[in-house]
C-alpha cells in the first residue's frame, strides 16, 4: 500500500469522525477549529491526513479557511427530520429493523453501481488494523456503513444514515464497549464487513443485501444477549 493510499484511507475515516463534532455543536458554527497539530494528536493521525479530511469538509461547504486565522465552521449539519432518540434497550430493536431495510437495499444498489474507487475505499477501510479495545471502533464501524450507502449512488441512503448518526453511534458505542472482552466479536464483525464488500465487488446484489441485513441483525442480537437493561 502506498503512502497516498494510506493517507486517503485514514482521512476518509477521520472525516467521518469530524462530522459529528460539527453536527453535535462541539465544533460550533462560526467557531475556529483546533490547529492541525492539535487535531493530529486528537485523532492520532499525521497532519497530511488531517489536511485531506479538512479538504473534504471545505469541498462540502462545511468549513472555510481564513488566511492567518485557521479554519472555521461555516455551516452546521442539521437533519431536516428529527428521528426518535434512543432512551432504552427496547428502542434499539426498531432502529436495527429500520437499518436492515435501508442498508440492505443500499448494499444491493452499491453492488450494481459502485465505482472501482469506491470499492477500493471500502477494502481499505475493512482491512484497516484495529484492536478490540480501540475507542475509535464505533466511528470506523459507522464510516463503513456510510461508505456502503454512498456507493449506492443514491444520496438519500447516505443522508439517511448521517441523519441517524446520533442514534447509530450510541448503539455502536454501547455494542463495542460491552464486547471488549468477547474475543470473537471483533473478528466476526470484520469478517462480516469484508463479506459485504466482496459481494459488492462481485456485483452480487442479492448476496450484498442478504449479508448486510444479516450483519445488522447479528450485531443487534449479540448486543441483546446478556445486556438487557443497560440503558436503564
From TrEMBL:
Q: Where does the record place the HTH gntR-type domain? A: 8-76
Q: Which UniProt keywords apply?
A: DNA-binding, Transcription, Transcription regulation
| SUPFAM superfamilies (alphabetical) | GntR ligand-binding domain-like (SSF48008), Winged helix' DNA-binding domain (SSF46785)
Molecular functions (GO terms) = DNA binding
Name the SMART domains on file.
FCD, HTH_GNTR
Superkingdom, taxonomy of origin: Bacteria
InterPro entries annotated for this entry? GntR_C (IPR011711), TF_FadR/GntR_C (IPR008920), Tscrpt_reg_HTH_GntR (IPR000524), WH-like_DNA-bd_sf (IPR036388), WH_DNA-bd_sf (IPR036390)
Q: Does the keyword Transcription apply?
A: yes
Tell me any Pfam family this protein matches.
GntR
Protein name, per record? DNA-binding FadR family transcriptional regulator
Q: Which organism is it from?
A: Martelella mangrovi
Amino acid at each position: 500500500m502506498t503512502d497516498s493510499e494510506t493517507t486517503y484511507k485514514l482521512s476518509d475515516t477521520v472525516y467521518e469522525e469530524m462530522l459529528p463534532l460539527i453536527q453535535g455543536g462541539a465544533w460550533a458554527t462560526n467557531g475556529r477549529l483546533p490547529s492541525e497539530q492539535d487535531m493530529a494528536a486528537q485523532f492520532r493521525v499525521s497532519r497530511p491526513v488531517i489536511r485531506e479530511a479538512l479538504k473534504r469538509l471545505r469541498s462540502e461547504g462545511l468549513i472555510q479557511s481564513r488566511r492567518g486565522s485557521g479554519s472555521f465552521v461555516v455551516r452546521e449539519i442539521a437533519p431536516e427530520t428529527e428521528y426518535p432518540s434512543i432512551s432504552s434497550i427496547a428502542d434499539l430493536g426498531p432502529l436495527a429493523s429500520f437499518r436492515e431495510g435501508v442498508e440492505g437495499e443500499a448494499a444491493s444498489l452499491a453492488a450494481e453501481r459502485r465505482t472501482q474507487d469506491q470499492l477500493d475505499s471500502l477494502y481499505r477501510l475493512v482491512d484497516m488494523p484495529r484492536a478490540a479495545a480501540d475507542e475509535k471502533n464505533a466511528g470506523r464501524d459507522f464510516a463503513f456503513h456510510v461508505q456502503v450507502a454512498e456507493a449506492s449512488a443514491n444520496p438519500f441512503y447516505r443522508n439517511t444514515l448521517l441523519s441517524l448518526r446520533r442514534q447509530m453511534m450510541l448503539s455502536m458505542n454501547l455494542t463495542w464497549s460491552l464486547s471488549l472482552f468477547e474475543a470473537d466479536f471483533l473478528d466476526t464483525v470484520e469478517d462480516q464487513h469484508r463479506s459485504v464488500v466482496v459481494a459488492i465487488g462481485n456485483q452480487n446484489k442479492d448476496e450484498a443485501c442478504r449479508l448486510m441485513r444479516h450483519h445488522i441483525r447479528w450485531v443487534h442480537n449479540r448486543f441483546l444477549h446478556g445486556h438487557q437493561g443497560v440503558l436503564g
